Amino acid sequence: MALDSKVPKGPIKDKWTDYKNNINLVNPANKRNIDIIVVGTGLAGGSAAATLAELGYNVKAFAYQDSPRRAHSIAAQGGINAAKNYQGDGDSNYRLFYDTVKGGDYRSREANVYRLAEVSGNIIDQCVAQGVPFARDYGGLLDNRSFGGVLVSRTFYAKGQTGQQLLLGAYSAMNRQIARGKIQMYNRHEMLDVVKIDGKARGIIARDLITGELERHSAHAVVIATGGYGNVYFLSTNAMGSNATAAWKIHKKGAYFANPCFTQIHPTCIPRSGDYQSKLTLMSESLRNDGRIWVPAKIEDAKAIQQGKLKPTDLAEEDRDYYLERRYPAFGNLVPRDVASRAAKERCDAGYGVNATGEAVYLDFASAIQRYGTEQAKIHNIKNPSEAKIYELGQAVVEAKYGNLFQMYEKIVDENPYKTPMMIYPATHYTMGGIWVDYNLMTTVEGLYCIGEANFSDHGANRLGASALMQGLADGYFVLPYTIGDYLSHDIRTGKIPTDTKEFDEVEKEVKDRIDFFINNKGTKSVDHFHKRLGKVMWDKVGMSRNAKDLTAAMAEIKAIREEFWKDVKVPGSANEMNVELEKAGRVADFLELGELFAKDALVREESCGGHFREESAELDGPQKGEAKRNDKDFAFVSAWEYKGEPADAVLHKEQLEFKDIELKQRSYK
Amino acid sequence: MNLTLKIWRQKDSKAKGQMVDYKVTDISEHMSFLEMMDVLNEQLVNTGEEPVAFDHDCREGICGMCSLYINGEAHGPDRGITTCQLHMRMFKDGDTITIEPWRAAAFPVIKDLIVDRMAFERIQQAGGFISVNTSGNTQDANSLPISKIAADEAMDAATCIGCGACVATCKNSSAMLFVGAKVSQYALLPQGQVEAPERVKNMVAQMDLEGFGNCTNTGACEVECPKGITLENIARMNRELMKANI
Fold first, then answer.
1. Tens digits of per-residue pLDDT, A200-222?
2. What is the pLDDT of residues A262-279, one digit of tens each?
3. Residue ranges of the alpha helices (H) in A139-227?
4. Which of A54, A326, B187, B197 is the most buried (most CB within 10 A)?
5. B124 and B56 in one domain?
6. B138 with A128: Cβ contact below 8 A
7. Are residues B77 and B23 both part of a single domain?
8. Overall number of domains in chain B
9. Residue A164 confidence class, pLDDT cut points 50, 70, 90
10. Of B62, B87, B110, which residue sits at a domain end?
């Protein structure tokens, strides 16, 4: 099947407006006869469910948690971008568009990104109207901060809990519709497959996680909003339950999977401490507004610190290597995430890491505390303030900005980050790749949509900070509710979709057989055993830095782990009850397939771009020496994979990317 | 360190539960409490026993999913954190740790340590929102200045994660801190004013219907709340309710 992105004609500035003016609408009386399933209730799914219900459709929403409010969007800390230009620093829709395409290393679709920038301002208006308590300045207007990869301040925030507040906003909008009966909410339910009738998505099979019962749900369209697949690495900043099952199941039923190798390794996470580690914790990128990243300049100091013989505060200023400021003077500590992560890895690989494992760098707030303290002393008219006074005043400012993050760090690491620099190291955080969608956010299966992190559309090969929340809400509030109407306008005479058909029978049987297999397998090793082994292969061979030899090996190793998993996995308990191990088994089985496709995609993309760094493709000399080398001539395309059984047999379809409004050039943050 | 765990096991909502003893060994003080539970569960799976079911998800203190009553304290023996942020350095070698689910009539046990918090959902559905459509056709976000003090206070109330520790720790199983936080968030913002009387009446009515107890100003909820929601929010809710009823 040839890929058709369905991007409308016309100048980029008018595409979305003209398109909306010309697509089909469904009249309100007919909307009452149309059902839509939304799987996942994070920012994308929650906002879509609420909006579709407001419009008049009958929505069924599904979440594996016990409430929509607990989806992992809640953990986003730093903020949400919007081209409001409230700071008067020259921001505009075009600049947000440009920054996002450049930040994504020119591997995203221009028209989608422009639309994202266009609706970004509306998101802020909407959220304020919903009662989201964004941070404000003393004049009562909204405050902004800066994030990596941009030169303006366009990030709106609610302390360090922006994702939480935005999700609670979408959740409140959902609650209003649940109370009206327009959304039927299925908490503690997991979608286990999609049902297609005559090539169209017409329903899902879901498992009630409390009773274990399999349920059939039909609808005129199905929307997948189930987030990313970062847990393929076992350790990531994702929630423990975050999984790729819905996305992988629709891939197996015909939805192409795009750019699986584009994964974001976030530079500022708390380093791992031991083998028992279950997940990694993010420290918001907003910390890079004020924190300076460094390692010791001398290898002997680094060794002494690793052995616990020297403290970071013992090192004089000239013995510290602020390597981001050194390598990237223009952007300094605010380079994009992929660049910051690789730079940290480079220093640690060279032996300059600062904890016992050698895999950590410092994030230091001493100079910010000093700077703010001096400023506060001036404001409060304190003459000749003592060092201690300056420190006290400065600490109060830092605490007001990042207090909850510092508290989180202290609880985990048991060190006071106001007094000694934080230790951070990169960790898997977000997946730019995902299900391929067209301009309407429809997958390659008719009537099957994919929104938010689960799709591939807007971030190219690297996502900029504070853009995930923007995309999730843009898709759910402002894009999908329009585009889905165009499709559903052809379904007004269809009537209710029955679930007692052979198509539902068949899919339910597949799902049931697989569950029974796990229960009856009685192997010898736990699900986590296999998940951890998969994670290790992914991190070691398909991590921050990749090469053909390792990727080829990874594909074979993942396949071997998968085969062993199916022979030897052990799932206690039964199918007809709450069974956490059974849930995990299904998810890990899918990760074991996705991981191999991920490695295959990374192998095929023989260029370095964004979060995907191929050692074979780096600049060899000149001012950019050692930086990633993109290859636009051969690789300016989206890889869209078609399922053919074994992941290694997947067929590649290419969507060529055209850049008409932005000139393709090397990304430089120097 | 080596520990003895006394854990509430209950097959499903209808079964009779009981405390069961388990031993775990070689627990590192750097582990989180839930990682210690993972070690126990891995042990149980390997010996063919059913692992202990407990709610958890984000493991960074924000989703509100985790919910254990540890040694008689909601979220265990530390302040300002959820169970997933509790670390084993709070315990000593040889300790016996008692782990129970939230105990409240309005939170029935589903399995082992997992409880049903749908009562919270129904309270939010009764009025925990501002009735504005998500069309985006609202006024510009900066057209209505809001004092920083009010916005910050609203934010402090809005940080509630809906975990239910307040209910679990209250001798009356009162949900007033939870409801007060949501009522306060909207009461402090101009956007919330229009529906304020109806909101507080409906949410409080639903709260009573669910079987939560009343507040007797003990203050245990404030102490155990992982997000530091203060009793002030309960006072504000009562004031709002009185205003609405006049």
1. 999 999 999 999 999 999 999 99
2. 999 999 999 988 889 999
3. 162-179
4. B187
5. no
6. yes
7. yes
8. 2
9. very high
10. B110
Tokens 């509790």, residue located: B86
Residues B167 and B228 in one domain: yes
Residue of A71, A164, A577 lying closest to B12 (CB–CB) = A577
Q: Which residue does chain A place closest to B133, by CA atoms?
A: A54
Query: pLDDT tens digits, residue range A81-138?
Result: 999 999 999 999 999 999 999 999 999 999 999 999 999 999 999 999 999 999 999 9
Find the distance separating the first CA and the last CA of chain A, reported in whole Å.
42
**A71 interaction partners in chain B (CB closer than 8 Å):** 63
The answer to whether A526 contacts B46, with C-beta atoms less than 8 Å apart, is yes
Q: What are A636's two structure tokens?
A: 């300016």
Query: Is B110 close to A210, i.e. CB distance below 8 A?
Result: yes
What CATH number is given to the structural domain containing B45? 3.10.20.30
Residue B40 sits in which domain range?
A: 3-110
Predicted confidence (pLDDT) per residue in A522-542, tens digit = 999 999 999 999 999 999 999
Picking from B120, B121, B185, the nearest residue to A131 by CB comes out as B185
The H-or-E segment that residue A200 falls in is strand A200-208
B134 and B15 fall within a common domain: no
Q: Tens digit of pLDDT for each residue in A574-624?
A: 999 999 999 999 999 999 999 999 999 999 999 999 999 999 999 998 888
Last residue of a domain, one of B110, B130, B164: B110
Residues contacting residue A51 through CB under 8 Å, at least 6 positions apart: A173, A476, A477, A480, A481, B134, B135
Q: What is the four-CA torsion angle of B109, B113, B114, B116, rounded to 10 degrees?
A: 30
**Within this chain, do residues B128 and B152 fall inside the same structural domain, yes or no?**
yes
Q: Is A69 helix (H, G, I), strand (E, B) or coil?
A: helix
Instruction: Say yes or no: B70 contacts chain A, CB-CB below 8 A.
Output: no
Contact with chain A for residue B52, Cβ under 8 A? no
State chain A's mean pLDDT as an integer: 96
| B240, B197: one domain | yes
DSSP letter for each residue of chain B: --EEEEEEE-SSSSSPPEEEEEEE-S--TTSBHHHHHHHHHHHHHHTTPPPPP---SSSSS-S-----EETTEET-SSSS--GGG-BGGGS-TT-EEEEE----TTS-EEETTEE--HHHHHHHHHH-S----TTS-S--TTSS---HHHHHHHHHHHT-----HHHHH-TT-B-HHHHHHHHHHHHTSGGGSTTHHHHHHHHHHHHHHTT-B---S--HHHHH-TT---THHHHHHHHHHHHHH-
Q: Are residues B199 and B216 in the same domain?
A: yes
Query: Angle, to 10 degrees, between the axis of helix A580-604 and the axis of helix A527-541?
Result: 20
Contacts of B45 in chain A (CB under 8 A): 526, 570, 572, 581
B95, two tokens: 């300790």
Annotated catalytic residue A337? yes
Active-site residue among A115, A337, A546, A605? A337
Strands A35-39 and A58-62: parallel
Q: In angstroms, rounded to a whole number, what is the distance separating the alpha carbons of residues A220 and A203?
A: 8
For residue A1, pLDDT beyond 70 = no
Tens of pLDDT, residue by residue over A642-669, are 999 999 999 999 999 999 999 998 888 8
The pairing of beta strand A651-656 with beta strand A155-156? unpaired
Domains of chain A: 267-428 (3.90.700.10), 502-636 (1.20.58.100)
Query: Are B102 and B126 members of one domain?
Result: no
B226 interface with A at CB cutoff 8 Å = no
Q: B215: domain CATH number?
A: 1.10.1060.10
Contact of B124 with chain A, judged by CB distance below 8 Å, is answered with: yes
Average pLDDT over chain B reads: 96
Mutation target vs B (from A41, A66, A87, A208; most B CBs, 10 A cutoff): A66
**Closest residue of chain B to A160, computed from CA coordinates:** B159
